[in-house]
Amino acid sequence: MKKISVVVIDDEKVDRYIVKRRMSKLDVFGDVIEATNGDRFLDEYFQNENEFQDSVPPPLLLLMDVNMPGRNGFETVEEIQRRMVDGRGPESIVIMMFTSSGNENDRARAETLDAVKGYITKPLDEKGIETILELYEQY
Amino acid sequence: MLLVEKYRLAFEIAPVPMLLVAGSGEIVLTNTHLNQLFEYDDEELIGQRVEVLVPKAIRSHHPKLRKKYDESPSKRGMGGNRDLVGMTRSGTAVPLELGLEQVVDDSGVMTMVVAIDIRQRKTHEDLLNLAMNAAASAMVMFDEQKGIAFVNKAAEALFGHREEDLLGKHIETLIPEHILLKRPDYVKEFMDVDEPSAMGAGRGLVALHRNGRHIPVEITLTPVVSPDGKMILSTINDLTERIEAAQIVEQKSKELEALNIELSHFANSASHDLKAPLSSISGLLSICLEDLADNNIEDVEEHLKTILDISRRSAEKVEGVLKIARAGREPILVEPVQFEQVIGETWTDISAGNDKKPDLILDMQHHRPIHTELPTLKVILENLLSNAIRYVDAAKPNPFIRIQSSTINGILHVTVSDNGIGISKENLNRVFEMFKRLDTRSGDGLGLTLVRKQLDRMGGTVSVKGAEGEGAEFTFTLPQGKEAA
Q: What is the largest CA-CA distance in chain B?
């Protein structure tokens, strides 16, 4: 089975570190790549005429923080979806919102975005890992 | 048979006071009712001139009036609206209503007079007027034939007219022209009511003040049918205060709505931003437990340091939020302040230890000293200046911050501008949002929120201009209450 590559998009260094530590213990996950906010992620992973880089082997999981400077998590997902429609994005992508907020509005907004497949509450713990793995079994 | 004899019997049977006066003015016949009314004995008035029954003030004038009547006699009622008064033997004035009719016989022309004592009616009228004048509501009585017949004190106050100026006038005097033009049958509708009815409730009815002002009113019409014809008593309530109160309530509810939005925005932001560090801490702590189990003390130590750092920053953030929540709760002294001195102190505090600090350029044109809350002014300056330092454009050779001031119409205007990295157009409106960090260099997203809240509270304003790459410009205003404009 292919390992799951993960990109964690979060401006909080500690939260990225927690994700890396949690996932490094499990064989099912491959490299954890960090992006410090949504704008950076879009810049770095859609370079060269915005073609999505092959550098990250599929299947790909994005853990997307909501509250970030610049484009917030939702706005970043919307931009990714736009680029996918234009044929510039990866073929398969699973995005999970990754936030400390239990806010109903945030959950509702996540529901409206096709590319968002789940919602994980910080900090990433065993339950969060289970949620991710269950989701992957469906694919 | 003499005329007098012919009438004597009729006079005695009649239930009202009557007398017969000869053309010379001599009284030739009276009845008992009349003698009693004027306090004379039987027959005592016979042969006396009718003027003995007339008040002294008009006694000399009276024969002329009689003569005039004799020249064009007609059956008529006297009195009515005019106050006719008779005088008794003891000098008491008695309000009267008189009926006159000329009768003729061989001995000449005589006048038959019916005199009705209207003292009781007068008393009733006076009591009624007293009651109507004591009423808080404005009351106007309209007579179908004679126009306005009565105006109470409250109505005089409401319309700005005196009663005597309104008596006999048309209703139209009290109704704005635009209503009469729009509804030509208005007055007819008004007079046609045959049962008590309310007008105007919720229909924007207005009355016309003497000075042209339109008064929102509510009117109740009560028809009064009297032997003299139909009258309408209108009771008019001024709705001005009620409408003003309703407007205040509406304004307040709008303010509350805005506050509610602000509060839910705050709760939303707080759930994001105050909870986030706690999530980080609990995540790190669970990793610490694992590291402890693996005896990895070095990592534990490092994580604990991070946790300590996060919790310190969180405490500061909470303090910042509390500052915003508290802003305006406690009154702060307004005092004369030397603005340049405050700028100097603030600049020293926030730029200390910064080798690459921008140049500070002052262009101060305000009236001195300014009057404001010193601690609040410091908070505002700290935030604006530290932002300007934070977003300095490293690519530009001569970074600067410029502070300009002026006093216009008693309002202090201060502009803090820089040639830093600037703000993109779409972000200009968002810089004041709580917890909004628009850049990785942003602080906790509270500073400008606090600045705006403090300025709002002091009756000032704050606005921002700027473009990406071209620097930012914040302008705030502060009313200078103590200074003449």
A: 151
Please judge whether A15 and B435 are an interchain contact, meaning their C-beta atoms are less than 8 angstroms apart: no
Alpha helices in B330-407 (DSSP H): 339-351, 374-390
Closest-approach residue (CA) in chain B for A15: B280
Indicate yes or no: pTM above 0.80. no
Q: Please spell the DSSP secondary structure of B268-328, one letter per residue.
A: HHHHHHTHHHHHHHHHHHHHHHHHHHTT-HHHHHHHHHHHHHHHHHHHHHHHHHHHHHHTT
Which residues are within 8 A (CB) of B119 and not within 5 positions of it... i.e. 6 or more apart?
Answer: B94, B95
Residue B32: partners with Cβ closer than 8 Å, 6 or more residues away = B12, B42
What value of ipTM does the predicted structure carry?
A: 0.84
Q: In this predicted model, what pLDDT tens digit does every residue of B74-104 receive, in sequence order?
A: 766 655 555 688 999 999 999 888 888 888 8
Q: How far is B180 from chain A (nearest CA, A)?
A: 56
User: CB within 8 A of A48, min separation 6: which ones?
Assistant: none
Distances (CA, A) of B63 to B37, B66, B194, B270: 22, 5, 46, 100
How far, in Å, CA of B319 to CA of B401, rounded?
28
Find, in chain A, the residue whose alpha carbon is nearest to that of B424.
A70
Report chain B residues whose CB lies below 8 A from the CB of A70: 438-440
C-alpha span between B290 and A24 (Å, rounded): 13
Across the interface, do A123 and B268 touch by the CB < 8 Å criterion? no
**Residue B220, phi then psi, degrees to nearest 5:** -115, 130
Q: What does the pLDDT look like over B137-185, one tens digit per residue?
A: 899 988 888 889 889 999 999 999 998 888 888 888 888 887 777 777 7
Strand partners, B199: B219
**Do the Cβ atoms of B110 and B103 come closer than 8 Å?**
yes
Task: Judge whether A65 is closer than 8 Å to chain B, CB to CB.
Answer: no
User: 3-class SS at B199?
Assistant: strand
CB contact (8 A) between residue B273 and residue A67: yes
Q: What does the buried/exposed string (b/e) look like for A29-60 if buried means 16 or more CB atoms within 10 Å of the residue's CB?
A: bbebbbbbbbbbbbeebbeeeeebeeebeebb
Closest chain B residue to A104, measured at CA: B268
Q: Is the peptide bond before B63 cis (omega within 30 degrees of 0)?
A: no
